[in-house]
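Service request form, structural biology core

Requester: graduate student, group of Dr. S.
Request type: structure prediction, single chain
Budget code: on file
Notes: please return the result as structure tokens.

Sequence provided:
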Amino acid sequence: MMIDAQGNALSGATATTVDLFDKAVEAFNIYRGDPVGLLDRATGAAPGFAMAHILKAYLFALSTEPESMREAKTILGTVKSLPLCEREASHAAAIDLLLEGEWSAAATALDRHNADYPYDIVALQSGHLMDFYRASSRGLRDRIARVLPRWSADTPGYSILLGMHAFGLEETGDYGRAEETGR
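Core staff response, request fulfilled:
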């Protein structure tokens, strides 16, 4: 079984498509580049690569545009047709809730998900965005605070988590800790 940069198992992936996926995750993390194009290349080479489809579904669903939401539903249909590990099935369930308009339930599902999969940066950032859209300042702070002790500076994406945590601290009025964490 292949793994992503944070050590999560990836069903249906190949060495080449894992690299494309990790680059797509990084593009999502920093809001730069073309994560969808990278994911399309990954799923073109490995149609059974569940997490590549899952990340693309999140990207479309979190855009909140009606056309994109319809595309996310189509992608989720593909995901559900694939053999999924428990982590991937948990993602599919959260996306289902999101597409049904159940943003709070989806955010809570991802919070539970990260209790079992604390290194799943796709779930962390997707949940963080759901917290932002729902104006849940505590969620912005606490979602990341719950997993941050498990991460280290050696874990790819650690700086991204620190940035999300700093934002959550700022949104809850803890400006000193927000600045310290952000720096």
